[in-house]
């Protein structure tokens, strides 16, 4: 049987299809990279948003799992975050962490440790700062 082979002994049809798919993917990737280079000013600032994923018991305390979402194409390094537990306007506890690297248009996860149960207080998370890599 001649499955996937050309009738005249030339290049098989499946090979032509594979080459065509590869060509389309390569041209699309080069076009996307070129478009990003053309439209980027290089002056964008990181836009890091923090989201609390979940709160779990951890050892003799609690951990607040946090995701840092960078909505900008600019990369941020050494992103410092802070979590604060408050009750009636009074700060009960604070915790800080640093994300070494949050690339543009990506997400990184980490945790903040507390001795008190964060579910019993008002929890606020915020970014404190970043560095340019």
Characterise this structure.
Helix content is 20%, strand content 49%. The protein folds into two domains: 39 residues; 84 residues, Immunoglobulin-like, CATH 2.60.40. The longest helix has 27 residues. With 133 residues, it is of the alpha+beta class.
Radius of gyration: 25 Å
How many helices does DSSP assign? Answer: 1
Fourth-level CATH superfamily of the largest domain: Lipoprotein YajI-like
Structural class, please? alpha+beta
Number of structural domains: 2
Mean pLDDT: 90
Quickly describe the structure.
This protein has 133 residues and is of the alpha+beta class.
Topology:
Blueprint: H1 13-39, E1 48-58, E2 61-70, E3 76-87, E4 90-102, E5 106-114, E6 122-131
Features:
Immunoglobulin-like, alpha+beta, 2 domains
